[in-house]
Automatic annotation (TrEMBL):
Keywords carried by this UniProt record: Membrane, Transmembrane, Transmembrane helix
Lineage, opening ranks: Bacteria, Pseudomonadati, Pseudomonadota, Alphaproteobacteria, Hyphomicrobiales
InterPro entries from the UniProt entry: NrsF (IPR009495)
Membrane spanning residue stretches: 24-46, 58-77, 89-109, 121-142
Name the record gives this protein: NrsF family protein
Membrane keyword on record: yes
Pfam families xref list: NrsF
Length: 147
């Protein structure tokens, strides 16, 4: 095949393609819906959930997770473009790391030293790790199967 034939062939394939941003947004929306459905089926919201969500320890989990997700999506969208410089973007990961460090420092300040190790692992660590992984699966699956 000659170069001109390849160029003509590529130019003839003019099917509209979904932009990366819209595909990612759709995958995140479908995945979030799947994760919420799994949460409702497996765990079901507790009766004191609104009050519990205002607790600083619980709120910090959401803040760290959402900041990491936002930075990750932003970096992914930037790095898939040709010529992107990954070195300048690595420092954005310091944002969720800094938020986490502030949260850990605050927790260590308000918790007595004898409660540090039990608080590090918790009572439901295996249960929590397996459910967090399970609820993250719809987001991963949604991007894989969406056009």
């Amino acid at each position: 095949m000659k170069t001109d034939d390849l160029i003509r062939g590529l130019a003839a394939d003019t099917r509209p393609q979904r932009s990366l941003e819209s595909g990612l947004a759709l995958a995140l929306a479908v995945g979030l819906a799947g994760a919420v459905a799994l949460f409702a089926m497996i765990l079901a919201p507790r009766s004191g959930m609104p009050r519990l969500l205002m607790e600083p320890r619980v709120l910090m989990k959401f803040v760290v997770s959402l900041s990491l997700a936002a930075v990750s999506v932003w970096m992914a969208l930037r790095l898939v473009r040709p010529g992107a410089n990954a070195r300048s973007l690595v420092w954005t990961l310091a944002v969720p790391g800094g938020v986490l460090a502030v949260g850990v420092a605050a927790e260590l300040l308000v918790t007595p030293a004898q409660g540090w190790m039990p608080g590090l692992i918790g009572h439901n660590a295996v249960y929590c790790l397996s459910l967090v992984t399970l609820m993250g699966a719809p987001v991963l699956a949604a991007r894989r199967y969406l056009p």
